[in-house]
Amino acid sequence: xxxxxxxxxxxxxxxxxxxxxxxxxxxxxxxxxxxxxxxxxxxxxxxxxxxxxxxxxxxxxxxxxxxxxxxxxxxxxxxxxxxxxxxxxxxxxxxxxxxxxxxxxxxxxxxxxxxxxxxxxxxxxxxxxxxxxxxxxxxxxxxxxxxxxxxxxxxxxxxxxxxxxxxxxxxxxxxxxxxxxxxxxxxxxxxxxxxxxxxxxxxxxxxxxxxxxxxxxxxxxxxxxxxxxxxxxxxxxxxxxxxxxxxxxxxxxxxxxxxxxxxxxxxxxxxxxxxxxxxxxxxxxxxxxxxxxxxxxxxxx
Length: 301
What we know:
By secondary structure, the chain is of the alpha+beta class. The protein has two domains: about 10-135, Alpha-Beta Plaits (2-Layer Sandwich); about 135-300, Alpha-Beta Plaits. The chain has helices at about 30-45, 50-55, 95-110, 135-140, 160-170, 190-205, 210-220, 265-280, and strands at about 10-20, 25, 65, 70, 75-80, 80-85, 85-95, 115-120, 120-135, 145-155, 160, 185, 225, 230-240, 245-260, 295-300. It has a five-stranded antiparallel sheet with strand order 3-7-1-9-8. Strands 10, 13, 14, 15 and 16 form a five-stranded antiparallel sheet that branches. Helix 6 packs antiparallel against helix 7 and helix 6 crosses helix 8 (about 265-280). The longest helix is centred in the C-terminal third of the chain and has 17 residues, at about 265-280. The model has no long low-confidence stretch (mean pLDDT about 90).
């Protein structure tokens, strides 16, 4: 097997794993949950304590995964309850050096040559490729966008807290009302969308963006939805068919514009930076199970 070298000084790594399935695969639910299970199994095989720590942590996870998916022509096809036989793909994004080290060992020690367990099926690894990415270059290579579109390729939803709701609408809740810590929104809200990405950037990036001012600019309407010509649709995604864990997410292509009367070139560059970053990290809730996977299409003036 070809030798790989990962420079552990670089901030984060994106891995593309290509697999070959000799038979159809059936999942209990959305395939992203099976991908996440595979991720934990790989980590556990090299560092059981760290795998347990990741699994039980309530902090922002230092990784994202894609669902199992196929490419037909130029089209991306995520697998929900079933994957057909043939070539399949999985992406992992690693935001901590400890994960880089573990996956370096995974590559060097045979890449699961006897097959990788996906649910009850073992799939044969076909190839692996990776990119090492630098946060600073995301910003230095950014452009001053004026409008853009985002394809939400897997079900996406955003969390909003009571504080978010009160801040936006200026309303106070009756203290007698019991308020849950989150409300889930299966809509492409620009503020919640960018906040979800900014949170990941703040946590793991070694390059400072002026995100506080950027979020304040967003909250006064800096970026607006300009339409979704082909519509969006919602999906109910069950984590497991026998549990009550489920979510509702939307998919579809959404067009956005930066509002002209408060246009700011620096804010436009930050938006471009975060959108390119989000293609690796996913957005919103469930990003460690392949939810919130996006493709970004910038439009220059």
